[in-house]
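Below is a concrete protein record.
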Amino acid sequence: KLVTTAAALNILGDEKRFLTRLFYKGNINEEGILNGNIYFVGGGDPTLGSDQVKGSAQLMDLMDSLSVAVKRAGIKKINGSVFADALLFEGKDIPDDWYWIDIGNYYGAQTSALSINDNLYKLYFKPANVVGSDAKVLRTEPEISGLTFNNFMKTGARGSGDNGYIYPSPGDFEAELRGTVPAGFNEFSIKGSIPDPPLFAAQYLTQKLEEAGVEVNDKASTLKERINYDDSKLIAKIKSPPVKDIVYIINKKSFNLYAEQLLKLMGLLERGNVAIKDGIYVVEKFIKENGIYAGGLDLEDGSG
């Protein structure tokens, strides 16, 4: 991660921030009814809704602020949907050489132009009193609509810690649970990766709008084709913390998601493409141009 973040500080700039925006399309009538849709537009911010980086609004605070902004725009009802626009990033969300045992867990979370809550959820279990017995699934936080589990998780010995793993295919909403969680807890949680972060972002915003009294007629969805936005219909914009603060968390906590996001953002800036190979090209070019010896360096992704 050191070479990725060194390049990011120089190429993106240590004060660079990424912008997430909320737009509407259509018309708002005198009764406050929007005949159209809301668009949640990702700009590659890896920290949106995260509690990891200072200056980033946590998930609940973020959604509350967006709900307030929608109401402030005069919208009381939406005859349409909330769409997530994550089309700034296209192509593979997970590097080819990452292991199946990792990608369902938080440290193997996929990249997205509309990342949210570090693209992770907590999965809560009730361990049994007897070692080797089944550990019961209780819930996820936040709730991930449509996510189901085939549960083979067992109860481990007291003090054995988190040895539980979540096995989905990329983008799959059915996952297998294997391993152990320790006895001696009323509840014990492990962290999983959200199967479709943009869809979750649109669904969660829809839920919070309805809780705030804004009726949304249609189901949340993800945008499949690029569209143009009218700045006069901008509802809200959220700036990320600066790159230097994101880099700090990457190296302090060995945060894979943030490293992969910055790699893609460098590829986009320098090459106009977010493919992993383009990000690697940019990092390797930076190393060569700065006279750094790279005889033993073989980059496969942004995380090392």
Summary: The chain has a mean pLDDT of 96.
